[in-house]
Every structure is written in C-alpha cells, then in structure tokens.
Amino acid sequence: MNSKKHIIVIGAGPGGLSAAMVLAHRGHRVTILERMDVIGGRNAPLRFDGFTFETGPTFVMLPQVFDEIFSLAGRKRSDYLEFIELDPLYRLRFSDGLDFHVHFDKTKLRAEIDKLFPGESAGYDRWYAYNKKKFEKVYDCLKIPYSTPWSFFNPKLLKALPYLQAHRSLWSVLGDFFHDENLKISMTFQAKYLGMSPKTCPGTFSILSYTEHAYGVFHPKGGVHMISEAMAKVAREDGAEIRLSTEVKRVVLKDGQAKAVELADGTILEADAVVMNADMADGLMRMVDNNARPTWNNKKLSNAQYSCSTFMLYLGLRKQYHIPHHNIIFGMPYHENLADIFERKSLPADPAYYLHNPVVTDAESYAPAGKSALYVLVPVPNLTADIDWAKEKQGFRDRVIKSIETRTELKDLSSQIEAERIITPADWRDTLRVYNGATFNLAHSLSQMLYFRPHNQFDNVPGLYLVGGGTHPGSGLPTIVESGRIAADLIG
Q1: pLDDT class for 149, splitting at 50, 70, 90?
Q2: Tens digits of per-residue pLDDT, 265-280?
Q3: Which residues, 6+ apart, have CB-to-CB distance to 299 below 8 Å?
Q4: pLDDT at position 1, please?
C-alpha cells in the first residue's frame, strides 16, 4: 500500500469523476472537491418548480466509452445506467420547412434520403464506408496522450494521417460525397458540438456524424445527468470521498510541483497529485500561479481560440408537446447564421436552435404528469463579442420564443410557460466559471489539437493533471470521459 497515493480531484464533472472512479478502484485514496452543491458540473441537473433539465449535454454517443470506463472500475455500466436507443436520432427542420428524420435504421434512412434528396443515397453509402475506415484509424489516436512532439510518431497516429483531413474544412470534406445543400448541413452541423462552424472545423471531425449513424444516439434513463451520479456512486463504493460546496482557491506548489490545494476557507489539503476538472482556462488562471505555467500563461490563454457560446432557455410547460426527443431548427439562411456567430460576432438575426423534448421518452424524470420540460439551446458568439447581455437578454429571449412558435408545432408556447430560467454567455462565465462564456471550451482548430492542446499531464507543473473539454481529446461527453481515463493511467 505504500505505493498508493492521495489524489485530489478538483471538480465533480464527468472528466474528474471518470478519473476518480478508476483511481479509487486501483486503491488510491481519492478526494473530490466540488464548488457547487450538486454533482456533475456542466452535466449536472437543473431543477426548479418541479421540473428537471440538463444543464448541458442531452444525449449519449459512443456508449462503448462508458462501458470501458465502468469496466476499468471493475463494474458493468448496465448495472448503473440504462441507455435507451433513439430512432430517429433527431429531426432536422430546414429554413424551407423540410423535415429530415435521421433514422438509425439504415433502410429507413436511405428511403428518407431518396425521398428528400433524390440521387444522394449512393453518396451516403460512399460517405459511410469512407468514414468507417476513418473512424477505425482515428479513434485509437484519441485514446493516447500527446505529451511530447515525439507523440506525432506514434504508430497509431502515423497510420491515421491519410484519413485526418485536418487541413480541409468539414464543409469541404462533405462536398466530396454530397451535392444537396441541406444534406451537407445534415452531416456537418455536428461541428456545433465543438462550438465551431463547419466552414472552419477540421475535416477530421466528419467522424462525429459517423459515430451517430454507426453507433446511435442514446438517452440514459432518468436523464443524462445520471451519468455523473452513477460514476460518483462507483467512486464512493471504492472509498472516494466527495465534498460538495467546497471551493478550491489555489493549487499549492512546492518546488514547482503540485503538492496540495488551498480551500476558500484557508484549509490546506496535501496530495500526491491533483486532477483539475475545472474549465481549463478559468481554472488555470484562478488556481495556478501565472509564473508557474509559461507554456499556457494568461497571455497565451487570452489569445487562444475558443468555441462559440450558447443562450439557454429552460422552459417548464403546462402541457406536453409530441415533437421528437431531439430537434434542430436551422436559421435562414444557415450560412448567414454561421457568419453572425463566428465572423461578425453579432446576435443571429434569424437564429438556429436545438430543442430537447425528453418527455416523449422519459416523462417522469423531467416533468410533473402531463407537463413538459423543454430545453432550448441557441448558439451565439462567446464573450469576445461586443454584446451587452444585460440589455439584450430579454429581447433575444422573445425573438427565440417567437421563432419557435412560427417555425415549429409549438404554436402556443408563450401561453404554456409555467416556469423559466435563462443562461446567457455572461452567466456561463460568472456563475459557472466558463472562460469567455465559451460553452464548448477551447476550439478544435488544427493549432489546438493533439500535442498543441494543453496536455493531460500538465507539463508546466509536475503532479498536475488536466481533464475535461479543454485538454486532449477535447469537448463532448465521450472524449471528456476519455480524458479522465488518460489522466488516471498517467498517474498509475
């Protein structure tokens, strides 16, 4: 037991919890310190007036990642979480009113493509076959750390190089397979999962849409926030301690190494290693001395590229709406919407948005009987834009509500709102401590991927490990969980 260590994990989000459950199972003493009074970070539930919402993520991709992390902790995921497969995966509504129900069943999907986009199903088959090979090559590259330049000579990465397409945009890559504009949008909007435009997102990420089509989209029974609850349960079963409402003020360095943390009340807790699951830029700026991190100092963090932000509406409704579980409503025209967000950095004149309507799958987990919990996510510029959210908040909210009533089946939405919360980019920054309000963290541009992203073993400070969307492999629940696994393996 002398080889076992005391590991402090800052933050009880999915990345920190995945590291904690593996480390605790390996016999380490693990202490998780969470600033909020609830487990989950951006995966935490938001509850008010009898309704429950997801704060952030609303679906599961790549279920095998979760199976693997539970297996590493000596458990079966199915003993803790039930994943419900959705088909269709989601409904896409385009500016011309066309609805595309994207089925997981390939026979139904091809029939839908033939009906809506005549002549494109052969391109779909080519796209699927190519991305199957691409995913097989690239996926394993996401599971290894990139701590030194020599990482680029890893045999897995060398074999994947011909498939990376990182020098081309996602939009350009899709042009190799499809001609119809709306179908290209259907296969590239997933860049928004990274908070990027498909016009600038590296073509590597065509695997995002492929993973949906190949492995499906799932809803965890009880809500996506149950993932964090389940991981916390496993960690506790193996002896991990979770302290809620416990804020870390700083990481204490001794001889340049992370050896302890200081809490907001002045308490010092010693550790053999520290895993930081806070928002990467905000956490480093707040908790690690600037002089101790020359590679990612405040200036470099300030000048880095960040994802877009999101304007969130959480609406408790008096009635149930029988629209699909997942709905993406595209602005008109879509490319102007992208330009507003990523180029002009202005509020979208005609916003695109995502509607999460989980009561059609799991009603009792989200709302009182006969009612709905509607989650509305609108991509907007991050806080590098000159937008005064205190002034714009209500007007933009009204614009979004009017658009939903006009462009969807929810014609009487305004009159059905019983409870409501709003999160603006300023709230992401001030309440949830997300740097620049960049909901999806550090952008996944070519200059900020793999070795060029902050390393899981933070090389400026020995003993400090980074997990979450701001480090490798990147944003999204599966990759964030994978970052925790990488950190746990580096610690041992």
Answers
A1: confident
A2: 999 999 999 999 999 9
A3: none
A4: 40
Q: Which part of the chain has CATH 3.50.50.60?
A: 6-83+221-304+440-491
Q: Say which residue the tokens 């026979």 belong to.
A: 107
Task: Determine the residue type at 128.
Answer: Y
Is residue 171 within 8 A of residue 190, CB to CB? The reply is no
d(CA 274, CA 375): 35
Reply yes or no on whether the pLDDT at 151 is more than 90.
no
Helices (H) and strands (E) in the chain, counts: 17, 19
Q: pLDDT class for 160, splitting at 50, 70, 90?
A: confident
State the sign of the Cα–Cα–Cα–Cα dihedral 64, 476, 465, 265: negative
The rounded percent of the chain whose pLDDT value lies above 90 is: 89
Cα distances (angstroms) measured from residue 93 to each of 49, 109, 152, 164, 374: 31, 16, 41, 30, 17
Q: Is 66 exposed, middle or buried (0-12, 13-18, 19+ CB in 10 A)?
A: buried
- C-alpha 385/C-alpha 347 separation (Å) is 9
Nearest to 341 by CA among 477, 476, 438: 438
Tell me the CATH class for 6-83+221-304+440-491: alpha beta
Angle between helices 226-237 and 14-25 (to 10 degrees): 20
Query: Which structure tokens are listed for 479?
Result: 């990759």
End-to-end CA distance of the chain: 13
